[in-house]
Amino acid sequence: MRKLPVIFAASAALALTLAGCAGSPAPSASPTAGATAAPQAAAGSCTDTPSGKFSDSVKVTGDAGSAADATFDSPVDIDATQRTVLSEGDGPKANVGDFGILNFTMFNGTSGKKVFSTYDQGSASLSMVVDATQFLPGLVKGVECLNGGSRIAVAAPASEGFGDKGNSALGITATDPLVFVVDLGQVLPANDPSQLKANGEAQPAVDGVPTVVDAEDGTPTVTIPDTAPPADLTVTVLKKGAGKVVESGQPSVVQYQGSIWGTKAVFDQSWGKQPFAVQPGSTVQGFEAAIAGQTVGSQVIVSIPPAQGYGDKGQPQAGISGTDTLVFVIDILAG
Prior knowledge:
Layout: H1 53-56, E1 59-61, E2 69-71, E3 82-87, E4 99-108, E5 114-117, E6 126-129, H2 137-143, E7 151-156, E8 178-188, E9 201-202, E10 211-214, E11 220-223, E12 234-240, E13 252-260, E14 266-269, E15 276-278, H3 285-291, E16 299-304, E17 326-334
Antiparallel strand pairs: 1-2, 3-7, 4-5, 4-6, 4-8, 7-8, 9-12, 10-11, 12-16, 13-14, 13-15, 13-17, 16-17
GO cellular component, one term: cytoplasm
Domain PPIase FKBP-type: 97-188, 249-335
Pfam family, one: FKBP_C
């Protein structure tokens, strides 16, 4: 499966990403403009970020979990990221390699002006890996060792923000520090195997739908029937989770395996790598449609006709032609 450069845009919650390393069921996207990745703790551990003068100066209006406005001492003049916990949650702690779903408001640390907020994008919060090679190092430092459900103020120097390229779309120059107000929601521990597969209740089999047998770690083996694929997008729930509903346009964290109906060949999967953080608009249409309306903890299987997959051009490097129907098994881990 093609490597995907992560989108970097002022109009999406992906404004914090650096570079995507994992394959994904997604269309091509424009490269990012980001900072140099900072050293980080080993996976499964974390380094606590101390508070300081500038993070302590952030005064926030608005309740946790809702749009934030803030004032702070500017210009921010620091060499390392500072974090102040405004309210502490009781969820799992975010270690390196874990997955978190968060909302945030971002400010230019020089001018004090708000430049972006996920809360202005409806339900489009950010699914992120706690990994400084994939996301702005200052944000990762802010979230590391933080309990799910917490609200924090983060002040980050330019070197741990957008770096020497800045971000012209956001009006951020190469020397501008950043200030964030972050609401960290669900944290998904990457070192807990039980959290990395669907745990819902098995549903009755449906005739004509590919069957799935899961290994102990959740890796699926799919048996596709020797029949013509459905002409339309077909989504079947194999396991029904008890978690919240993933609304259309909402980010999620999933495991997936993709195969081709005709050849039965597996062309990509997250199992054996890491779960995939799905951002709204970042994957093929049929993949997101299969997740929308489902509950966390569910496993679904979807057959995607070309028009809602890779179109008539296919994906040659993955062995997908313009007429191939795709089959994805998707375990919904968080949303």
